What does this fold into?
Amino acid sequence: MAYIANTLTMPVTGERTQPASDLDLARAAAAGDTEAFERLYEQHHRRVFSLCLRMLGNGSQAEDLTQEVFLQVYKKIGSFRGDSAFTTWLHRLTVNQVLMHFRRRGVKLEHTSEEGDFTNVVDTPLQSTRRISMVDKLALEKAISELPPGYRAVFVLHDVEGYEHNEISDLLEVSIGTSKSQLHKARMRLRELLTKQ
Amino acid sequence: MVCSQCQELLSDYIDGALELGEQINIERHLSDCEPCRAVRDDLLQIVHFSHQLPVQSPSTALWPRINAGLAELQPSFWNRSLRWLQNLRTLNINFSVPQMIATAAAIAIVVSTGIILSRRDNGTTPLSTAGITLSPSDPTPLSQADLQVLEKQISQLSESVEQRKDSWDPELRNAFERNLLYVNQSLAECRHQLSDHPGDDVSQELMLNAYREKIRLLEGFDKF
It folds into this structure.
C-alpha cells in the first residue's frame, strides 16, 4: 500500500508549490485523480473511523462503515463545492451514513425510558473514594461503547464531536428537548458505568 | 431545591444553558450539598475528557478494501462525461484560449450524448452531424469511407500540432494532452462498443462526435 505522506505538495500556481488544501485535493479527486483521493483518505480516515467507532461501539462495524463512507465520498465528491470546510462536509456525510446504518438495523435512537436509566445520588450517595478516574480514557471509551445507541449517538455528537442540540435535533430527527434529555441521561449513565469500573 | 431537581438540571447547568434564576438556585443548592457537587464535578470531568478523546486508527487493511471498492466504481463513459461537466462547474479556473476550445469540445460531447440518448428514447427524429445524416432506422450510418476521411484529417492536424508542441509552455502542453486524452478515451470507448455491437447507431453517432471534437481540439491548438 502506497500511503502518501501529509507533507506532499501539489502545484497550485505553476511556479510555487504549497501543501495541497482539502479543496484542491477534492477537486483533483473529482476530476478522477485517485492519488488525490488517497491523500484525502490518509488525512481524514482516522476521524471518520473514530466517529463511526464511537457511534457504533464496534470496531469491525466501524471499519465497514468507514469503507462505505469513503465510497460515498468518492461518488459524491463532485458535489463538494467548497462552500463549507471539507471536514464539515465529510463529517456530515459520515453521521448520515451512521444514522442510515442504525435505521437499516432497526435501531431506535429515541430512548424514552425514564426508569432505571441511572441511579440517583439520593439513593446511593457518591463517596469520594469512588470518584471517577478520568485519567483513564480507555475506561471512558469503554463506557461510551456500553451506552444504549440513542444515548451514545447524542453524547458522541455533542460532547465528543461538538455538535449543538439544534444540529443533533435535525440530524437525528428528534426534538431539541429530547436531545438535551438524552445527553443528560447519557452523562449520568457514563458516570455510573465509570464508578463501577 | 431538592437533589433530584438539581441533578436533572446539572447538564444544562454545566453547558451554560440555564436561565439566570435557575442557575442561582442550583448554585445555592450546590453550595450546601456535597453529593450533588460530586455529581457536578464528575459530569464536568466526563465532558472535559470527552472533548479530548484521541482519534482511533482502523486496521491497515482498510485502504486496500476501499481501493478495491473504488475500482468497481470506476466511471463508465457516460458517467465520466457527466462528471467532467460537473467538475467544470466546481472548478475556479481561468481558462486560456486553447483550454476553452478543449473544454468546449468536451462539453459538446456531453451535450451530444444527452441529445442522442434523449432522441433515441423519444422518437424517430433523424440526427445530423459532421455532414452525415443519421436515422435511428439506419443500421450502418458510418461508412469506412467516412472514417478514413476523418482519420486522415486528424492525422494531418496531429502532425502539425506535434511540430508546434515543442514551443508550448508546460501548462499549455498539459492542457492539450489532458484534453486529447479525454477525447481519445471517448473514441476508444466508442470503438469498443462498436466492436461488440457493430449496428449500434448511438455508438456510431458518439464516435462521429468524438472525431469531430478531436478535430476541433487539434485545430484549436494548431494555432499556438
User: Anything to note?
Assistant: Confidence is low (pLDDT under 50) at residues 1-16, 118-130 of chain A.
